[in-house]
């Protein structure tokens, strides 16, 4: 493994409260997660990203904290958390956590104090306006569920700013005390042993909000400050950020000091995510080729985090209306599958019609593209969604462990569960669960284990450079390569339904006993690379040559 562990990581994200319940109260907890670390180690995960674990009224699934220095009693104790870090480390797994400091819950003692009086020491920790700001109805993140970004608070007798829901007042990052507090929060968790943070809502964190100015200035240097702070406290800690901004804005989030990233280490590649969905919907790799071509070059040390599904809706807002409609048509045909006028609230397996070939193809493609793959819990067994639950909860149902009642997630009475398990239809736990798939070498879970093992033997995928192989291809087929000091991998993915034959003989001079290291079926010898067969939705990962370095 190279020095920059995050370039070769496999990140797995989960909500502690829907993963595994150890004490039978219906809510997943940290001890339950500890009990499942062996499962994650076997899967090949090297880093866990935990969604918020702090005390919270849970009106936005924990993205509304009331105490940044603690663990919600629903999930366990700080002691349990320290034990988790230890047990995970024993298995070579790092843990990063969500850092949600753009806002707090309105029940946070800071906000309670701030609203109580203009003289409160916390008044200035939030963003206020004495008069109704003219941009009150602009900039909402949750259209349909949120109708303003400035709300009047009767106790405070003033307007406060909230980029997200009304119960999530924004912290005032222009205030040096708030900045110092954010660093203190980070230090606290680093001191306990986390390997870094998934930073929530970064474009809004750095916004220096001015009432009446819907495009208030952004202070990117705050990110430089945070980076320095974090790196000083723990040299190999990382910042992985959610910043769904225009592509030309992305490089400044990484920062560039003498050619090296000096702000965030990693950004989620939202642009690629939308293009991947479009490519899968059209069965045409062109949008991915465009994404590979158009994404800005990164400074040294900067890295993309790729994903197909996360805990939120699939955000299609960066596609054109026509492109978005193509994706809707294929993957979110019913209105109830869509959310916020921009996305889809479904899991991947169900969007792909539970077609095993397409699920493998999609994940083989994601994991072979540049960047560090992020996998959401349950995707490895092909879980579905529950559209009867409101909003994003549809894709936040409990992990399906076994055939037992409640999918083996909890021993509580079903009505006590944090959220119902999926118990009907083809995605019900009776059909989709870990126990069944663990026993079956042909299961999706077994495939994920194999695919991730292969990935870990090919570090050039994460840490090398990825390029499209621009030679004539049959329709639907993408050819790309990853090059690094460890060698070269070549990938073929057929997004279409026609069998294809691909000629890559131009790569023959570079080849050194090339072989398929992962494929959807046995294709036989790769020969001189001039007649490579590929079935419908087929894929082949070919090791072209090994480098000298390792
Ligand atoms: C981010 C999270 C989302 C949350 C929001 C507010 O977008 O991904 O789940 O609701 O921030 O914190």
Task: Describe this entry's structure for a reader.
- It is an enzyme of class 3 (hydrolase).
- It comes from Micromonospora costi.
- This is Alpha-amylase.
- InterPro entries: Alpha_amylase (IPR006046), GH (IPR017853), GH13_cat_dom (IPR006047), O16G_dom_2 (IPR045857), SupH-like_C (IPR054049).
- Keywords: Carbohydrate metabolism, Glycosidase, Hydrolase.
- It is a single chain.
- The termini are close together.
- The mean pLDDT is 97.
- The chain contains 16 helices and 21 strands.
- The chain has helices spanning 30-35, 37-43, 78-90, 109-116, 176-192, 202-205, 221-233, 250-254, 270-282, 286-294, 321-331, 348-351, 356-368, 434-439, 444-456, 460-463; strands spanning 11-14, 47-50, 94-99, 128-129, 150-153, 158-161, 196-199, 238-241, 266-268, 303-307, 314-315, 338-339, 343-344, 372-376, 465-468, 477-484, 487-494, 500-502, 515-519, 532-534, 539-546.
- With 550 residues, the protein is an alpha/beta fold.
- A hairpin with an 8-residue loop joins strand 15 and strand 16.
- The chain folds into three domains: 5-102 and 188-453, TIM Barrel (Alpha-Beta Barrel); 103-172, Alpha-Beta Complex (Oligo-1,6-glucosidase, domain 2); 464-545, Immunoglobulin-like (Sandwich).
- Helix 9 runs antiparallel to helix 10 (286-294) and helix 9 crosses helix 11.
- The longest helix is centred in the middle third of the chain and has 17 residues, at 176-192.
- Residues 60, 63, 100, 164, 200-201, 242, 311-312 line the site of alpha-D-glucopyranose (GLC).
